[in-house]
Amino acid sequence: MSKLRTAINNVDLKRFRFWLQIGFFALFVYGGYLAINLGNSLPTFSCAFNQDGRGGVCFLMPLQHLMGTRWSSLFGWAGLGVLTAFLTFALWFIVLNKAWCGYACPLGTIQDWISSLRTRLGIRSGRYSKPQFRSLSTIKYVLLALTLLIPLGIGGGYLPHSLGTPFCDICPGRMILPLFTGDTSQLTIDFSSRTAMIMTALGMLVTGLFFTGAFIKKRFFCFFCPMSALHYLFSKPALLNLRKDGDKCTRCGDCYRVCDMQIREIADDVETPRIMKDDCILCFKCVAACPEEGALKVTFLGRTVFEATEEGFNKRMNQGETCEQPKHQH
Amino acid sequence: MNSPNINTEPSAFQHTRQAREAEQTLDQITDRFDDNPKAMDYFYDLFRRVYCQGQALQREGTLVGTTCIHAPEELIYAVGAQPLRLCNGSYHFDQAGGDFMPAKSCSLVKATLGVLSTDDAIPGGGRPELVVNPTTCDQKKKASAMVAEMGYNVYDLELPPGKESEEARLYWQRSVRDFSVRLSKLTGKKLTRSRLKAAMAKTARAQLAFRTLHNLRKNSPALFLGKDAFLVTNAYFFDDIDRWTEAVEQLNEELRAREASGYQAAQRKAPRILFTGSPPIFPNLKLPLLIEEAGGVVVADETCSANRMLYDMSAVDEWRLHDMVDALADRHLKPCTCPIFTNNLDRRRRLLDLAESFNADGVVYQAFAGCQVYEMEQRSVAKTLSEKGIPMLYVETDYSPDDMGQLSTRIEAFLESIKTRKRKRS
Amino acid sequence: MKLIKRTAPLAGLCGLLFALQAVAASGPVWLSDHAPKGNRGMRSHGGPVEIRRGTYYKHLWIRQGDSPQTSNYARSWEGSANLQLLDAQGQLSEIPLQAQQDQGGVEAVFPMPDEGFYNAYLQQARIEDGRREMTIAKTEVLKHSCREGHDNVQEKMPAHHNPAMPLEIVRERQEKENFHTLTGYGDEIRFRILSNGEPLAGAKVTLTSGQGWSKSTRSNDQGLAAFTMIRDYYPDWTEFEKRHAQTYLVNAVYESDDAGEWDGVSYRGTRYLASFTGQYFPSEADYESYAHGLSYGLGALFLTAGGTYFYRRRRIRPYREIRFDE
User: Fold this and answer.
1) What is the dihedral sign for C-alpha A49, A52, A53, A56?
2) Does C54 touch chain A if contact means CB atoms closer than 8 Å?
3) How confident is the model at residue B71 (pLDDT cuts 50, 70, 90)?
4) What is the three-class DSSP state of A144?
5) Whole-angstrom Cα distance, residue A226 to residue A223?
6) Distance (Å, whole) CA B377 – CA B365
7) Which three-class secondary structure string do you get for chain B?
8) Which residues in chain C have Cβ-Cβ distances shorter than 8 Å to A200?
9) How far apart are CA B250 and CA B237, in angstroms?
10) Quick one: which H or E segment has residue A268?
11) Chains that touch C (3 or more CB pairs under 8 A)
12) Which tens digit of pLDDT belongs to each residue from A5-20?
């Protein structure tokens, strides 16, 4: 048992995550070909527009549809449907918590691939300054509010039907994920109405921005993702969790510097044991980069499954071990 | 004498005051204690050769002197140079350095100036090609111009006054990047990814050896004594890093064997002391030696000549120069518990954590007279420790041996009070 | 026997109008799900429906004419009292027809409890000049609510037919067709002509678009007749609707020399006339543009990438003096 524990704590998280992400990518982008269907309430970008390949449907799409129900129905029998859908979503979500972002999300995985391409090209990643970070990280809440309120306005008859899925319209996942099954039909501008034209144009602009963004900033899109904001509302009862023992923390900042989401609290906050923040994607890179025994832990149902250890840190960080040591010059 | 195979031919160097001072301390370390670990012989020999006989260091490559732990050594190794920590612990050089500094100044800074003012600042002769002076405390900052006046190439590595803010971190990262450019110019060797990777592996291996040694000190009763641990980390100042690492690894082996056989280097009831404050640097190991001669055992420390220098490790996300250099910068700033920074929260937390994980019974806080930052932090550290019920002895001292008698009385009384407390508790 | 007794809605107002209606009344009979005075209830994926306590109900109206544009609603109906319904489960039932004078037409209403396609048949016969004329009006309507999910759609996709029908038009499914698939301009639509469930070759098949354009062809050996749907919708851009539904009408004619006696009258042969209606819409190519989409996307990509590149270049330059802007 303790051997297994050591083996887990010594895991090469980068490789583990790479393969697990590929597995999830295959499931959500190509699962449909294997007749996999995980339903309509998935807490990750298993894009509905990827008609043939999707292994389930991202909850945001049905959520917008449901919110767009006529008010008389929405506040009547259809409201029950909305609640059921939310409940299913929450049940999916609490199992993996935000690891849905760090491991399962196909769009997140694509961003990680783009980042590793950038690393190979030797281009450094961008970083937000503190004020930038603070203002940018509120955008996802604004987007979530709009994602819910615009369809609600349609249900009330205040907004045109062509705005039915406002977030899907501008989500780069709609353009990009169907491409993996050879469907290019989302790369168009829809001129059928002014609204459609504006939204599809915005969508294509966001897609262009997505590629640049993901290339120069790790997990660029995740800062703005309304799904991430929605996750945070349900994250309290989640089974998988990230915990910090502040007493053991030296505030060396190793966790912060490897954090794709630039979450400062992971290094600086030594008071809060439940250290997961709203931007966190639960990728556990911080745990892998922590040299202090047990300072950071991954828990499932309160039991530790993976924790920071000195040995594990050394295994993972000692990249130059096999390097040829240069001869002394004389 | 412990080491029969060293050259005992008397030389002129052996008659210098500094050599006699070193010899005295070494004799104290080796002869007044029983059962010193066999693997410590490497370090005893090393100090005898270098400090008592004035033998050359046997280091190859351009020597870059550093006056503080903040200068990332990995960068120095990566451009093919060798770092040499210049901080000095000799009373002889402390007095010599008195010419440069006001009377009430830190012994360490004075001794460092003192040794640099000689023609053979490097043991065995010669001078470092570059002196890197991180702008830490006021005294070290002002020492920079004096060192330059002595004819050295001095590089002021600019450190921010605080480490909490993101601005400070970015400022420091820029400083370190600048530093790497300066180093490349010094040796004419470009900083490359593979060179830096190799350098980082070199220090990581040393750090790992140190951490293992550090963790072995958690054993109760102690497997070996603090005076030896300080000697080991002091050797890191000037020894070849690979030879040093191998010697520490051997020491770790021996200590593991001791652990397996249930060996006790100190009595079961010996008070376990956590050492903090101004750094003990050879030959000024008087305070740790007094503690251990009085029956205590130094089980851990929070000083820049040992733990703070070697404990914290850097994490890299993207193994590219831009991220590796920034990672090194972070490692030399963020976890640092040096009192020069605006806030000492981390130092107090670190002490509490060390006291707990090493099961320390008390803390000895050394402040060099004139080292204002340590003197000023005494109050807050004492408060934090007393809140947790950890007794602390605050000792203001310097390199002079004059206060030995008085110190030994105070230390004995402190240890006695700890023993009484322990008895009452059990 | 007279099939339809009409009363012109604006009789006496305009003779010309009356004349036009009289001409239109001579065409084939067909079934439409659009009410004479406009639809109430809601639009679903299968066209207009009425929802009563969560169940979808379809209203079908009898119309007559050569073209959907000029066809009129029957005011009264003298033929058989029932519509024959082949439901989504393949069960046959009879649905009574009711004349709704206030609505201005004759309708049949039936519930659609199950997801899938419902086929409605209206059969009529008369003898004229010693020949029997048999009309089989058919329409196929879809019941689909997205709330019921999209999991088992494929098995419900194949078209049903009624082997009892002497002449029937069956719409062939498109490749990968599902409940959301629409027929668009430029799409090929194919029909299979069946006689008592067997493919019928050589029948004359005519497709008439919503605006009256028509084309005829003959069914081949497999009973297949194919048409390419034309675009006949050219509004101003501001009025363009991508879900603009139009009805196409398909007729098939086939004559046989089977002599016999029907309703006490003998006949020498029979002329079978089948009709079928469906909906068509603007296709995506009518309102979507790859050229614009890709240029916007690539434009954003290159602009931001270039911007970042130059920003980073500038940052590498040495520090420059601060100047005050006065």
Assistant:
1) positive
2) yes
3) very high
4) helix
5) 9
6) 10
7) CCCCCCCCCCCCHHHCHHHHHHHHHHHHHHHCCCCCCHHHHHHHHHHHHHHHCCCCCCCCCEEEEECCCCCCHHHHHHCCEEEEECCCCCHHHHHHHCCCCCCCCCHHHHHHHHHHCCCCCCCCCCCCCEEEEECCCHHHHHHHHHHHHCCCCEEEECCCCCCCCHHHHHHHHHHHHHHHHHHHHHHCCCCCHHHHHHHHHHHHHHHHHHHHHHHHCCCCCCCCCHHHHHHHHHHCCCCCHHHHHHHHHHHHHHHHHHHHHCCCCCCCCCCEEEEEECCCECCECHHHHHHHHCCCEEEEEECCCCHHHHCCCCCCCCCCHHHHHHHHHHHCCCCCCCCCCCCCHHHHHHHHHHHHHCCCCEEEEEEECCCHHHHHHHHHHHHHHHHCCCCEEEEEECCCHHHHHHHHHHHHHHHHHHHHHHHHHC
8) 293
9) 19
10) helix A265-268
11) A
12) 999 999 999 999 999 9
CB A306 within 8 A of CB A273: no
Residues of A within 8 A of B316 (CB-CB) are 258, 317, 319
Could you give the dihedral angle defined by the CA atoms of residues A164, A167, A171 and A177, in that order, rounded to the nearest 10 degrees? -50
Neighbours of chain A (3+ CB pairs under 8 A): B, C
Closest-CA residue to B293 (of B403, B390, B411): B411
Task: Report whether B74 contacts B143 (CB < 8 A).
Answer: no
Query: Rounded to an integer, what is the distance from CA B234 to the centroid of its chain?
Result: 5
Is B388 touching A (CB cutoff 8 A)?
A: no
Phi/psi of residue B394, each to 5°?
-95, 120
Instruction: State how far the Cα of B194 lies from the Cα of A292, in Å rounded to an integer.
Output: 27
pTM of the model: 0.86
Of B354, B361, B356, B357, the C-alpha closest to B424 is B361
CA R_g for chain A: 21
Q: How far apart are the C-alpha atoms of A264 and C75, rounded to whole Å? A: 76
Read off the pLDDT of residues B347-388 as tens digits, 9 standing for 90 and up.
999 999 999 999 999 999 999 999 999 999 999 999 999 999
Over residues C207-232, mean pLDDT:
94
Question: ipTM of the predicted structure?
Answer: 0.90
pLDDT of residue C153: 84
Partner-chain residue, chosen from B82, B197, B353, that has the shortest CB–CB distance to A320: B197
Q: Judge contact between A58 and A173, C-beta under 8 A.
A: yes
Query: Which of these ranges, A225-234, B331-340, C80-89, C315-324, has the smallest mean pLDDT?
Result: C315-324
Run of H or E residues at A115: helix A106-121
> Computed from CA positions of residues A223, A24, A178, A215, in that sequence, does the dihedral angle turn out positive or negative?
positive
Residues of C in contact with A216 (CB under 8 A): 308
The residue length of chain B stands at: 426
| Cα B392 to Cα B401: distance, rounded to the nearest angstrom | 23
